[in-house]
Amino acid sequence: KNTTSHSPTPSRTPIAPVMAPFVSADGLDSGDKEMMTSRSYQDMEAVTPVEASAPSMKKAQSKASTVGGTASGGPSLHGGVSATPQGAAAARGTPAPLHACQDGENDFAEVVVVFEPQGTSLMMGGLHPRASLFEKPVNLEAAKASHSEFRRVMRENGVKVLTVRDILSYGVEDHIGARVELEDLAMKALNYQLAEGVGEDDLAGEDKYYLSDEYKRSVLEHMSTSQLLDMLLIHPTVSISPSYRDTGLTASYTFKPLSNLVYTRDQQITTGKGIVMARLRSSVRELEVALMHFCFDKLGVNIVGEVREPGYLEGGDYCPASSDLHFVGVGLRSNYEAVTQLMEEDLFGARRVAVVRDDFEQNQDRMHLDCVFSILGDDVCLMMDEMMGKDSPTRRLVDEWTQLSPGGKYTKTREGVEFVEYLHSEGWHIIPIKAADQLMYGCNVLNLGGSRIISVNPASARQIVKDPHFTGDVQVIDFSPITSMYGAVHCSSQVIKRTQKRAFQQYIDTTDGQRMQWPPKALQEKLGPATSAALETLGPAGLAALQPYMSQALPAATPSLTTK
Q1: Which pairing describes strands 506-509 and 562-563: parallel, antiparallel, or unpaired?
Q2: According to the 3-state scheme, what is the secondary structure of 196-242?
Q3: pTM of the model
C-alpha cells in the first residue's frame, strides 16, 4: 500500500473556527461539565476546519453567541477562512484543514491531543493492573484530578488542548452526519457472535436476526452519545445462546478495553510532514491506532503515512530536535524496519535521522527513548546518568542517516556512535539525571516550546533549573496517579502542531552587502517569544515598524533592509 499519499477521509462533520473565549475557568472537560461548554470543545472550535455550507455557519454563529463568543469570524489559529457565510462560500468544497507539523520539541506547542482518564475502559484496566500494562494499582478519581491539572497548566501556557472524547462527540448531537460517522465506527467495535458450542441451528428462526448487522445498527442508533463513546473504548463482544424462555436468548460478555489510551504519545508521531500512524507492539493496544486515526480524520489533520508490517513504531521513541535532526529510538518497542519505512517514504521532514539503538538493555522501565532522554532546549537535553559513556553496560548507540538532497534518499553517515559522544559532537549540553529519579519519571518531561518544561519529578526539576546552560522555566505537577499506569507527561500528550522555526528563518540583505538570518537571535530575545512568533507574517511595512528595535538590537543594521 502506498502510504505517501494517505489523505484523511472527508468528514461529514461541520466544524467551524469559532474563536469563542473560554467559559470554564477550571479546565474541566466532558464528564465534568456540559460538553458544549467544555474547555476542550472551545479549543476545538479555535483550531478545526471551517465547514463548507452556509447553513452550518449560521449554526456556528448561533453557538458562538450562546457561549459568549463572536460571530464576526476572522482567521482560525491555523489560517482558516472566516467563520461567516461569506467565508464558508469561499471555502465551499475546500475546507481548511488543521495542518499537523512538528520540527522540534523546543518549538512552541500550539495544539495538543490528550485522553482524559475516565469511564469504563480505565476502570477495567484497573481490575488487573499488571495484565493491563500498568505499573501499579490506579485510583480513577485521583487520576482524573491529576490529568485535569495537567490540562490546566498547558492551557495557561497558551496551548489548545483537545481531548479524545470531545473530538469523538463534537457535533454528534446537532449534525446527523457526525452521528452516522460515530455509529459506523461503533459498528466495528461491537461484535455479536454465537456462544461457544452453539450453532445457528440451535436458534429459532426469528432469533437469528438478533445476530445480524441490521439489529446491531438498530441498537447503536438508539444509544446516547456517551453510550457510544463508552462502547468504543471497551470493544465488547456479546456471545449469544438460546435460553428457551423469556426473550429466548441469553448473553455473556467479553471486552477489549482501551485502558492505555491515556498515553496519546504512542499511537502516532507528528513529524515535519504531518501525522504518521504508528504500529504498537502490544496486542492489548492495537485497537488504539484506529480510534486515533478516526479522530485525526474528523479534525481534518494531514495523515501522511502509516507504519506497516514488519515495522513497529511507538511515539515514545520519537524525539525531534529540529528540521535538521530527529531522534528515533529502536529496541524494546520500536524497530529499525519502521524507521527505514519512514525514511524511504520521506515522512520525517528532517535532513538527518539519528537512530538511537537500545542494543544492551531493553527494560520495561526504560521501554521508550523518552523514558531516558528529553529535549529541554535547542542545545540542552537530559539523560539518565547510568547509560552515559562507552563503558556503560546500558549505553545507547547512534546510527546517523542523512538526506543528501531535499526529497532524496537517506544514506548512513555515522554508525554505532555512543549516544553521549554523538550529542557532544553536535554541540549539545547534557544534564545527567540519577537512575533513581529516572524511575520516578524524571526524564519524561513535556517541552511546550521555548524551554517551558512540565515535569513530574521535583528532584530532577531542581537539577534542571540549577544548570547554567538551561535558561527556561520548569513547572512541577503531581502526576503520580497517571504514572501508576507506566508513563508521565510526555507519554500523555500528542503535540500535533508546533510553530515552525523554519517559517522564521528568512534572510535579509543589508546595504553593505552582508546577509544575516531573520529574525536574528538577539532581536528574538529582545522582543520575547510571542512577538517573535508574529514576525512570521511581517512584510516590508512590518520591517519598517521594527526599525526602532532593530537599531537597539542590531546597531550595525542599516534602515534599508530588503527581504529575500
Answers
A1: antiparallel
A2: CCCCHHHCCHHHHHHHCHHHHHHHHHCCCHHHHHHHHCCCEEEEEEE
A3: 0.77
